[in-house]
Write a structure and sequence with these properties.
mainly alpha, elongated, single chain
Length: 49
């Protein structure tokens, strides 16, 4: 299978909260970047988690 291109992503706790709940994140949740995030489960390689 051909190697898939890996687009750069910048997923933060705010982005994830909004995607999962549909609501705006609470003010106490800092917008920290999630280091090992992937948009597609096929992009996960051993050791990424």
């Amino acid at each position: 299978m051909a190697e898939r291109p890996y687009p750069s992503t910048s997923i933060t706790q705010h982005t994830l909260w909004t995607a999962l709940t549909g609501d705006t994140p609470p003010l106490t949740l800092p917008p920290l970047r999630i280091a090992h995030a992937a948009l597609d489960s096929r992009d996960i390689r051993p050791g990424d988690m």
